[in-house]
Amino acid sequence: RKEVEQDPGPFNVPEGATVAFNCTYSNSASQSFFWYRQDCRKEPKLLMSVYSSGNEDGRFTAQLNRASQYISLLIRDSKLSDSATYLCVVNGKAAGNKLTFGGGTRVLVKP
Amino acid sequence: GAVVSQHPSWVICKSGTSVKIECRSLDFQATTMFWYRQFPKQSLMLMATSNEGSKATYEQGVEKDKFLINHASLTLSTLTVTSAHPEDSSFYICSASGGPRTYNEQFFGPGTRLTVL
User: What φ, ψ does residue A30 adopt, rounded to 5°?
Assistant: First the structure.
């Protein structure tokens, strides 16, 4: 089983709609959780950290469910520019600030 | 955020040659740098963790003699792909963290696309 699993998509989303997707992680000792965004042929960029109580950043809302070991990302009022691959990232090991990346969920926002 | 650069941004080489990729933290001192590899339609896979002044720690399955990592200063780490072969063609990305300014967040370089003919 992969340490971090995501639905690869693509999620085809009409502009202005809401889209949500999850990520599951296998290591119950994971401490930190993040969503990164990666555009085609570019490096990943931090979208937001995910906090235990859930957090919101503009149109983006992230939730963490430790009991079920998943995190979620919700995008409201989708923009064309939101089209990207969203990477779920977990610090999967106890030492060294290592990050473990999920395979990514591809989101395509269409007019 | 902190800035990390990589050079070159892309490289094409012949099979059997060695390629060096540089990763620099431009405005902070990176005590730790990470090297990742990403094949098409796959996720980033950590290859090795590099701490300044010490030997890199390689992930399982990554050949340390093939992927030479040097982290000689707090702002520079290099990855050398020795005797590159077509199966080494990939997107190599570094990240850097360290120091109070980065709060242990990893900042990614723009990546280097390696194509081995």
Answer: -60, 140
